[in-house]
Amino acid sequence: MEQNINRLFDLSEKVAIVTGALGLIGKYHCKALAEAGAAVVVADLDKFKAEEFAFELGNDSIGGELDITSLASIKAAHDHIMKKYGQIDILVNNAAINDMFENPNTELEQSMFENYPLEMWNKMIVTNLTGTFLCSQVFGKEMVKQGKGSIINIASTYGIVAPDQSLYKDENGNQIFYKSPAYPVTKGGVIAFTKFLASYLGSKGVRVNTLSPGGVENSQKEFFLKNYSDRTPLGRMAAPYDYKGAIVFLASDASAYMTGANLVVDGGWSVI
Q: In the predicted model, is pLDDT for residue 201 greater than 80?
């Protein structure tokens, strides 16, 4: 049945879970969904801060602790959400990690592919890929029971194109560090997982799509901001709120005939 355009984007009476909800763009995913009418489950490692932020959102939103690498933690969150709302309509698999090199003196050498630590590789696989798998499995079961739902997996432009290592050269042309293999591989895996799940769940009424954001400005060094902006058609990095419209689109009936797709919102970065 045809719906009015305003109704298509309306998320009233919907329950949305956002993992990694206290992160840089996670908060804006939550704000967007709440502004569209959804009750939002703010899920992150810090229970107190998650509850505090959920209170700010309103709409009967709740916050809670969630470790996406722990099946027990996910099941506990599932039980709490179902007891509170009795439904799960939207899942945003946003939680992920990126490389963090603690010692700037060894950052360049450690980030080189030849030296990249196995423990860092394994940690990113478990968080970025296995965590997405587990959350989709546990929360997605409720969507299957309902016969409807939308899963949105957050990937990256580095999931569709290789890292541009020249971005990480300073104003004097010195390589500061290298983008490691782990992040692009896991984000590419998220896109592949989306396609699998979309095909598997399509007949059950559950849509699964990917959002691939570009880089977000977050107090990076001046040389990086310039390097990134210079190779981006729109001439800037993203603001964290630049993805609000895309999240609501993918979560709502506005994208009712869309599944298995990768929505790239990157200022044109990946077209060059």
A: yes
Backbone torsion region of residue 86, taken as left when φ is above 0, otherwise alpha when ψ lies between -120 and 50, otherwise beta: left
Q: Who's near 145: CB < 8 A, 6+ residues apart?
A: none
| CB atoms near residue 65 (< 10 Å) | 17
Alpha-carbon distance of 31 to 27, in angstroms, equals: 6
Residue 100 has pLDDT above 90, yes or no: no
Q: Which amino acid is at 9?
A: F
Binned at pLDDT 50, 70 and 90, residue 40 comes out as very high
**What does DSSP assign to residue 261?**
-
The HSE-up count of residue 268 (CA atoms within 13 Å, CB side) is 9
- Considering the candidates 28, 158, 183, 228, report the single residue annotated as catalytic: 183
CA distance 210 to 20: 16
Q: Which helix (H) or strand (E) holds 151?
A: strand 149-154
Does the pLDDT at position 182 exceed 80? yes
Could you report how far apart the first and last alpha carbons of the chain are, in Å? 40
Indicate if 168 belongs to the active site. no
Amino acid at 58: G
The number of beta carbons lying within 10 Å of the beta carbon of residue 203 is 7
Per the CB < 8 A criterion, the answer to whether 207 and 149 are in contact is yes
The domains located in the chain, with CATH, are: 5-271 (3.40.50.720)
Q: What CA–CA distance (Å, rounded) separates 262 from 208?
A: 10
Q: Is 219 left (phi over 0), alpha (psi -120 to 50) or beta?
A: left
For residue 152, the SS3 value is strand
Q: Which residues are within 8 A (CB) of 102 and not within 5 positions of it... i.e. 6 or more apart? A: none
Neighbouring residues of 246: CB distance < 8 A, sequence distance ≥ 6: 211, 263, 265
pTM of structure? 0.97
